[in-house]
Amino acid sequence: MKNVTFTAFISAMALGASLAVAQTITPTRVGPVSQYGQLMTGKNSSGKGQIYGSCEGVKDGAEVQVRGMSLYWSLMPQALEFWSEEGIATMVNDMKIQIVRAAMATGDEDWKGEWNGIQLKGYAVDPKNQKQFMKTVVEAAIKNDIYVIIDWHSHKANQQTDAAKNFFKEMAQTYGQYDNVIFEVFNEPEKISWSDVKNYANQVIEVIRQYSDNLILVGNPEWDQNPSAAIGNEVNDSKNNTAYTLHYYANSHNWEGTYNWGGESEGLKGEKAMNAGLSVFVSEWGTANSNGGGDPNQGRNQSWQEYLNKHKLSWANWSASYISEGTAAFQGGSNKTSLQYTTSGNLVKGYLSTNPESYTKCPTGEQGQGQQGEGQQGEGQHGTAAFFSAPEFGLNISLTGKTLHVSAPQAATVEIFNTLGNKLFAIDHVRGELSLATLPVGRYMVRVRSGSATTMRAIAIK
Fold first, then answer.
1. Distance CA 317, CA 304 (A)
2. pLDDT-derived band of residue 388, with 50, 70 and 90 as boundaries?
3. How many domains does the chain have?
4. Whole-angstrom Cα distance, residue 430 to residue 389?
5. Half-sphere exposure (CA, 13 Å, Cβ side) for 349?
6. Catalytic residue among 63, 139, 184, 188, which?
7. Residue 385, C-beta contacts closer than 8 angstroms, at least 6 positions apart
8. Are 185 and 201 in contact (CB under 8 A)?
């Protein structure tokens, strides 16, 4: 029989109830999220850390690389123009972005900016407006079926732990059921120890995991240039879905080798982290100098692009704004419905031009580990029996009537989604049988995770 703790069961039911009354945001197109599903960490057959999608699962050749733009700090009108539904849609249509990063100011910042009558100040001073800016971007991303990074854009997040926990609790409760959403809990730690970063991250991750198993990004010391610091000392994540960020600016940082003073290049440290089994995500990079200024060096940018593509690293370029900086993508005449590009913006738009023109919705009968084959079939002919498995991992799942049977080498997590892709509930520590009798008649998706194995299929309750 199933082994489900009372707490886990009540939490799952409460989550399901809250989602039942929450407003559902429906995509207006088929985009990368429909094709790849939830982003998830994993290792290839060589043990290298990569990012995968729940549609195909963790397997060689199924690595996912998504590319797009990072919004500038939510403190200036030259940036807030694009923190809008129209701004996101324009970048999707004109630049083919697959992901957007919302870099929310978290402290008491006041750069004397004003937007639509709002005096722009950081979250510590004005949480209401900062959260609304974030929600606008997140919902626009969901409508456009692209990924969105909810970024706690701070250099001192470890001094803002309680505020961050409250913020991410609300974000995870509200949007954690959408595969689009990624949580970046610490933008760029400055010169503090990895243990300080980890201690902070563990507390915030624990809060997020009460409501969502979506991908989480964690920064590392000295402005995210040391992802290898986490090797053998990873954060605590009950869902094992955390990646470590690498930030670079092409004129200032190197993609390979060592520096004359003996230090390893940023690219080398990223590669070391991946080879040690950690997944890496480039949530911010710039075409010019690390202070945002300078002119883009095309040769150095090309070398960095080759590095990113070689390692299939997802990225967001800094910045979608018309701030007076060399790394800003847009010229001053731009607005949320019309983009005029700087040298940097034209360069980045060129890189993004190889993103797909269109996407194909993940075939529900083929999600998870591997393809259907002998002994594997999708929904039963009459919706009363189905069998699917990831046998190479010892994971076998079957559905009889309204009872899900789980055979796995270790206790599994079972998640149920409606046909819009919204998670209804999740139950941990499942072994043997799990009754789905509380589900109304209809079609659903079930995802089962046990250890490194994941499988997902369509089912029908009649």
1. 12
2. very low
3. 2
4. 16
5. 18
6. 188
7. 398, 399, 400, 401
8. yes
CA distance 227 to 338: 37
**Which tokens belong to 132?**
């609304």
Residues 169, 94: one domain?
yes
pLDDT tens-digit map of 51-92? 999 999 999 999 999 999 999 999 999 999 999 999 999 999
pTM exceeds 0.85 for this model: no
How many other C-beta atoms are found inside a 10 Å radius of the C-beta of residue 436? 16
Per-residue pLDDT reduced to its tens digit, 389-421: 454 457 777 778 888 888 888 888 888 887 666
Using CA atoms, how far residue 39 sits from 66, 242, 350, 420, in Å, is 10, 10, 25, 17
Q: Please tell me the number of Cα atoms within 13 Å of 161 on its side-chain side.
A: 14
Q: What is the pLDDT of residues 271-321, one digit of tens each?
A: 999 999 999 999 999 999 999 889 999 999 999 999 999 999 999 999 999
229: domain CATH number? 3.20.20.80
Rounded-to-integer distance, Cα 163 and Cα 232, Å: 29
CA–CA separation, 304 vs 254, rounded Å?
8
331 and 401 assigned to the same domain? no
Domain boundary at 304, 326, 352, which?
Answer: 352
For residue 374, give its domain range. Answer: 6-25+365-461
- The pair of structure tokens assigned to 102 is 């919302």
Nearest to 127 by CA among 106, 153, 149: 106
Residue 460 DSSP SS3: strand
Can you spell out the DSSP letters for 317-373? EEEES--SSTT--B-TT-BTTB--B-HHHHHHHHHHTTS-S---PPPGGG-BSS---
Task: Give me the residue label for tokens 């999600």.
Answer: 367
Q: By the 8 A CB rule, do 246 and 227 touch?
A: yes
Q: Is 188 a catalytic residue?
A: yes
Catalytic residue among 63, 81, 284, 415: 284
Q: How many other C-beta atoms are found inside a 10 Å radius of the C-beta of residue 203?
A: 16
**Residue 241, SS3?**
coil
